[in-house]
Each structure stands twice: as structure tokens, then as C-alpha cells.
Amino acid sequence: xxxxxxxxxxxxxxxxxxxxxxxxxxxxxxxxxxxxxxxxxxxxxxxxxxxxxxxxxxxxxxxxxxxxxxxxxxxxxxxxxxxxxxxxxxxxxxxxxxxxxxxxxxxxxxxxxxxxxxxxxxxxxxxxxxxxxxxxxxxxxxxxxxxxxxxxxxxxxxxxxxxxxxxxxxxxxxxxxxxxxxxxxxxxxxxxxxxxxxxxxxxxxxxxxxxxxxxxxxxxxxxxxxxxxxxxxxxxxxxxxxxxxxxxxxxxxxxxxxxxxxxxxxxxxxxxxxxxxxxxxxxxxxxxxxxxxxxxxxxxxxxxxxx
Amino acid sequence: xxxxxxxxxxxxxxxxxxxxxxxxxxxxxxxxxxxxxxxxxxxxxxxxxxxxxxxxxxxxxxxxxxxxxxxxxxxxxxxxxxxxxxxxxxxxxxxxxxxxxxxxxxxxxxxxxxxxxxxxxxxxxxxxxxxxxxxxxxxxxxxxxxxxxxxxxxxxxxxxxxxxxxxxxxxxxxxxxxxxxxxxxxxxxxxxxxxxxxxxxxxxxxxxxxxxxxxxxxxxxxxxxxxxxxxxxxxxxxxxxxxxxxxxxxxxxxxxxxxxxxxxx
Lengths: 307, 265
Fold this sequence. Notes:
The complex is a heterodimer of chains A (307) and B (265).
Chain A: H1 3-38, H2 41-47, H3 52-61, H4 70-82, H5 87-96, H6 102-112, H7 116-137, H8 148-153, H9 171-206, H10 209-213, H11 221-233, H12 240-247, H13 253-265, H14 268-274, H15 280-304
Helix pairs in contact in A: 1-4, 1-9, 3-5, 3-7, 4-5, 5-7, 6-12, 7-13, 7-15, 9-14, 11-13, 12-13, 13-15
Chain B: H1 6-32, H2 41-44, H3 46-67, H4 82-89, H5 100-115, H6 123-129, H7 154-162, E1 174-182, E2 192-199, E3 208-215, E4 227-239, E5 242-254
Parallel strand pairs in B: 3-5
Antiparallel strand pairs in B: 1-2, 1-4, 2-3, 4-5
């Protein structure tokens, strides 16, 4: 491929991924801004159950309240951390919300109907998000998980603002401030999105899918390939079901489930955004644990379940 | 009231401009139909609209914040309620404008969008991605058999081939197809090319190429990536040991790139 063709293909891929993803990131930053001005820290503390297990389960369902995909969930989670949400609950929300929300439920149903893929996707995602969140709740110093600058930056540059009890704002100034905050946060998170889209477009332009097809029917390799593909393609969780549908005939059912459970939690662009919120060590576990669980679940289903 | 803000002011202007112009760029893409090069607008046209509206709102509020007359110093303001106090307090956000690195990174898509001419994925992207010649990555469906043969597009035909036990059933059926010309080594020395299309479910991230093999005496005259309108009748040939439908062209004429360059499965 010559340089001109490469640039044309790359820029089309890059802009395509960016245009779809940025809309959801903007929605996320807008929800985050509205949360900041209209929801007080007391509300969050009041709404969350005291019991860590109950709180983690509540966190896994929060996506039905804030329907965001994996691009929008990071700014919302950062805001909720700042509002006093326990870190382990936030991580559960972060991992669960891209799947556990009404939009994704609808798109998965539209693509696969009610059957093993839909049920498997929701059961596995839920178990993954809750168990990983609970694992993080054992960390005695939850603040060590978070990148300290992530908490300071979103409160307008001063760390102390996180401790100031906020009052609910009046409607019109509240909306204006929410928009201003969203505009600032868009640049904070948007840079990671751009880097992620850039890498995803580069991989999409260079990696040939024909090589992958050869591994489609092996119960183990197909799962690893689909996990890798989910990471590389960085699809939005609201639409990945339609893409998975394209693979469903050639690839094993377990590998499709791995694609649909691992991809929404971890891909190039979300990893890039996680790095802006969490410490590197935390991000390492947030990538490796979902990978191990979803791959094992996929392989186990291929070997033990008849579809 | 503010000190040392001139540099931050520049960045605040740049920030507001990126928001507004990214919104205007998307709006322009939506209005001119260029967006069809990137997104499945049949199913997900609302997504770029949502992004556009939020960007325009963010851009306009940023310019409003920059251009409105400077506020009185908070100390002179008598008897504020708490909500307004917060609002005045956030005036210091202006000095916390994004760093140049963030501005450049977030501005990058705008630059790429403005500087590189917008083109749909074409033959060279197929070469990188591999054309699905075995067609098997498509979902099973028989709806395409209800479409009269002459009205079927590339996707309908490939689906039909994929859902039949014997491709000889298609011999003699007429076809009328628009697509771009694609060749690879399989067609070396043969009077053949593929009339190909990309399909996308969501956006170009999931693009997959499909094609129908066309045979014509003047096949070599058509350059790769050019859009053509092919009519003819199907025949069956054995290619790589498999019975494969080949469209024997009655006529091939140059065609304009369709408004929707991708097909939506």
C-alpha cells in the first residue's frame, strides 16, 4: 500500500471511530457536569448502601441510571469518586455500566435475540464487574488506587474543593456551569480518546482479518483471538453486538461471549482513559483481571456447554 | 482581578474554538452527507447529531464566558445566595485552561478532518483488511431471496450465495450492481475483477469488504477503486476448486460514487 492510500484509509478509520466515540464521551462529560452541579455528595452517600457487598451490587446496576457506554463512563466515574463514591463501587460501576445499561441491552437483543449470547453476556459481565470490584474493596487505602491528579483536576484545579460540601445549584446557572465543566473535562478525557482512536485506527489499517479466520473454530484459540480483536477494534459497547454478529457464524460461541464481555471493559481507548484516572498498577489489574475471567469463561463454555 | 492570565487566555480561546469548530465540522459533514463516509447513518445517524449539538452548546457557552463583560469583584457583590457564589467562584476556572498538549491532541481530529480530503474506504483498504471471499462472516438470512434479482445489491447477492446449497441455481439470473473495482492476485491474467462494497454495522471500525466477481473482455480497462455500474447474467465457474458465481458483464459503465458508499447489513 502506498503512502497516499495509507493516509486516506487511516484517516477515514480514525475519523469514523472518533466521530462515533466522541459523541458518547460528550454525553458522559455532560452527565458528569450535571452530576456535579445538581447532585450533592450527601445524595451519593445517602443513596449508597453501607454494606460493601450491597454497595458493590448497587454499583453494578448504576448503569441503568446513567446509560453511558465505555467512552462516557470514565468521566462519570471520576465525578462520582469526587462525590465520595467508594473506589471499589466505582470500579464495579466502571466495568459494569458499559454493558449493564438499557441501550446495550436493546442492541444486544436486536442482534442476537433472547438466547445464550444475551444471557451469557449479562451474567458473565455482572459476575466480572462485581467480583473485581469486591477484590478492590480489600485495598485498605482506596485512594492509592486513583491517580491523585484525577481528583484534583476535575474540581477546577484545587484539591481542597473536593472536601467542600456542595449545595445544589439553581437551574439556569447550574446548566451554564455544567456546560463549562463538561467543556473542560472533554479536553481532559478527550486526549486519551484521541490517542486510543489513533492506535485503534492504526491497528485496523494494518492487521489483516484473514489471518484470524483460520483460528475461528478452535475452542481455545478462537477465544484468545476474539479477546485480542475486542481490545484492538475498540468498538463502542452500544454497537459491538452487531459487529459480533458478523463473527458469530465462523467463530465459537464462547469466543463471541468473550468479545462481548471483555471488549466493553477493556480496549485500547478505555485503557488509555483509565490511565488518566487510576494509578498504573490499578489499570494493570483492571486490564488483566477482566481478560483472565472473560477468556476462562469463554473457553469453559466452549468445552462444556452445548449451544 | 486576574494576573498572569494572558497565556491562559490564549488557551481559553483555543479551547472554545476547538469545541465550536469541531461542532461546525461535524455539522458540515452531516449536512453535506460526508458523514456517510464514516458512520452507518441509517441506524446510527443520531449519534453524530448528538455529538454535534453538545459540541456546539459547549463551544457557544465557552465563547459566551469569554466575551461577556468582566464580573464585579466578588467582594463588592452584596448578599449573595450560595448558588451564585459558586458561580462567581468558578471564575477561576478560566485560568485553569487546558494545557497545550491537551489542546493539540483534542484538536487533532479537527485538523485531520479539515486537511485530508474525505474519502470512503476503497480498494486499498480491502487489501489491508482482506476481502471476505468466503462470505461466511455474514449473518444467515433468507430475506434477500424475496428481492427481485435485478434489485439486489452486492450484499444481497453475497448473502444469497451464502445461503444456498448449489450456486448453479443462480446461473442465468440477471444482475445490476454498483461498486468499486477491486483486484488481487487471484485475478492476475484473467479478464476479471470484483465489483466490491464495504458493509458497516456501526462505523468504519467494523467495515468488511464484500464482492462479486465480474468477467468482461474489457475488464483490464477498469482501474482499481473506480466506481462502476455493471449489468449482466450469472454463470458458475470453478475457482480454487469451488463452484463460484461469476457475473458475465453485458455492460460496464463508470458510475458516480453513491451517496451512501457503504452497505448496511
